[in-house]
Design goal:
mainly alpha, Non-ribosomal Peptide Synthetase Peptidyl Carrier Protein, Chain A, 3 helices, 50% helix
């Protein structure tokens, strides 16, 4: 596991209250029982962790851990 994905996973575990082994690239946020408020909180945590800024419209269509991780990676 890369250092960046480990940092991403730690944020997801803390914000979404899931086990680290549930945070896999193919997981959907729906499968992690994350609602829209959870996702906003996760984005805020990821912005702080990675020192990036994510615009709200960039989140359209992000339904999986892979999509969110790729978005964060594109900004660092």
């Amino acid at each position: 596991m890369s250092d960046n994905f480990e940092r991403f996973t730690n944020c997801a575990v803390e914000v979404l209250s899931v086990d680290a082994d549930q945070v896999v690239l193919e997981a959907t946020f729906e499968s992690l029982d994350a609602d829209s408020l959870d996702l906003v909180e996760l984005v805020m945590a990821l912005e702080e962790e990675f020192d990036v800024n994510v615009e709200e419209e960039e989140l359209d269509g992000i339904l999986t851990v892979q999509g969110a991780y790729d978005l964060i990676l594109s900004k660092i």
